Amino acid sequence: MSGFNEQILQLYAVPFYTVLIGAEILLSNYRKTNYYSIKETLMNLYLNFMNAGLDVLLRFLIGLSVLNYAFQFHLQIHWHPFLYWFVLLLAEDFLFWLEHYVDHSCRLFWAVHVTHHSSPEYNLSTGFRSSVLMPVYKYFYFIPLVLVGFKPMDVIFMFSLTQIYGILVHTQYIDKLPAIIEYVFVTPSHHRVHHASNIAYLDKNMGMVLIIWDRIFGTFAAENANDKPHYGITKPIDSPYHPLKIITHEWQEIAKDWRKNIPFITKLKYLIMPPGWSHDGSTKTSKQLQNEIQEA
Q1: Which of 92, 126, 133, 204 shows its CA 20 to 30 Å from the CA of 102?
Q2: Is this structure's pTM higher than 0.85?
Q3: Radius of gyration of the chain measured on its C-alpha atoms
Q4: How far apart are alpha carbons 195 and 203 in whole angstroms?
Q5: Can you tell me the distance from the alpha carbon of 119 to that of 253, in angstroms, rounded to the nearest whole number?
Q6: Rounded mean pLDDT of 32-37?
Q7: Distance between CA atoms of 287 and 222, rounded to whole angstroms?
């Protein structure tokens, strides 16, 4: 049933997104805010199509195969229907936060995820600038869910549902919302921080629907009116409209580090340590840069 519901969800999502993005483009042109450019918007959509194609393929080859296998060993928990979906929402949202945290904390996964952050623009179409290779591993994060009795297709349906919310917060036209909403949910203000390259904002606000995980685990940062977000990555891509370069540029940087005359264990650290880590201090991680600001 959830497979059918997901198809219905996707069927209605496409015209819904089309109308919203069209309206935001018109508003941007009317107010002359220049939040959209043709090249960046087309690139966002192109990367989304690449991600979607790979996702459809791997969802069946890897995702459902792995989750269905794990589901054989699930605990026999008798969920009340309401509690079933409520706990699935909370648990899936937390596991997304965990995946997102790893993507920002380990350079190997950052090399995949950085695609989503690479645009210097921030608008609804940026939400479609997908990390093309993420379907290779994202389904493995859902294994704990099926082990406690959530059906694989229900897990995938919930992820698709929360992604709709995650895309909608990619906007500059909604200011801060009432305090209770800002405290519990991810809002456009929170996500603007996440996409900013300002040092104070780096690696903050990882949540998809709920911001409470960031508050609990110390990755939360509020948008500061005196520190306007600057979007994109700290080291812009030298070929910003070349799809292959956008997808692979961080892998090319890793390859450069591996060619250095350093011990093999140090080379491994260039894969597993956070982005910006270097053995000689020539580049710094976000936490190192943030500590320097606090100490200044």
Answers
A1: 126
A2: yes
A3: 20
A4: 9
A5: 18
A6: 94
A7: 17
